[in-house]
């Protein structure tokens, strides 16, 4: 990225009883965009140290291709996300298989993450789910 802010996404953060909620909008489709988005979320997680994190992905476009998902997960190690339970809501149902694959990779690499199609279920897991 150049010195100018060329983000193609927007994140709206909010504090909740289960931790932090991040609502992400904009356009995705590249590893670079995904990494920039998640690094911005990680910055807020490090700043606030919430127990739980709900990410509501309402971005247009597609997830990075499967061959880049491992690189994404490995790039997030050490960013402070290992200390927080992550509930990820994919608003575009057709993308859930790719996102679930990324979730499996994340869990294999020390993160506690789960993918949901419904925000109510995700919040329930953050509040009451197995710890």
Structural account:
The chain is of the alpha/beta class. Helices cover 40% and strands 25% of the residues. It is built from four helices and five strands, in the order ββαβαβαβα. The chain has helices at 31-48, 66-76, 96-108, 119-128; strands spanning 9-16, 19-26, 52-57, 85-90, 112-116. A five-stranded mixed sheet has the order 1-2-3-4-5, sandwiched between helices. Helix 2 (66-76) links the parallel strand 3 and strand 4. It is globular and about 35 Å long. Mean pLDDT is 90; it is low at 1-5.
Write the layout of secondary structure elements.
Layout: E1 9-16, E2 19-26, H1 31-48, E3 52-57, H2 66-76, E4 85-90, H3 96-108, E5 112-116, H4 119-128
Parallel strand pairs: 2-3, 3-4, 4-5
Antiparallel strand pairs: 1-2
Largest sheet: 5 strands, mixed
Number of distinct helices: 4
Low-confidence parts: 1-5
CA gyration radius, whole angstroms: 14 Å
In what range is the share of β-strand residues? 25-35%
Give a quick set of tags describing it.
131 residues; alpha/beta; 5-stranded mixed β-sheet; 40% helix; disordered N terminus
Short summary of the structure?
By secondary structure, the chain is of the alpha/beta class.
């Amino acid at each position: 990225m150049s010195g100018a802010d060329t983000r193609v996404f927007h994140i709206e953060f909010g504090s909740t009883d289960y931790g932090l909620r991040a609502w992400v909008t904009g356009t995705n489709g590249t590893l670079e965009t995904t990494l920039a988005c998640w690094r911005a979320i990680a910055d807020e997680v490090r700043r606030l140290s919430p127990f739980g994190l709900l990410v509501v992905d309402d971005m247009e476009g597609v997830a990075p291709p499967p061959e880049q998902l491992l690189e994404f997960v490995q790039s997030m190690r050490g960013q402070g996300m290992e200390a927080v339970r992550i509930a990820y809501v994919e608003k575009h149902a057709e993308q859930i298989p790719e996102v679930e694959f990324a979730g499996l990779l994340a869990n294999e690499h020390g993160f506690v993450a789960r993918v949901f199609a419904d925000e109510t279920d995700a919040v329930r897991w953050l509040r009451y789910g197995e710890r």
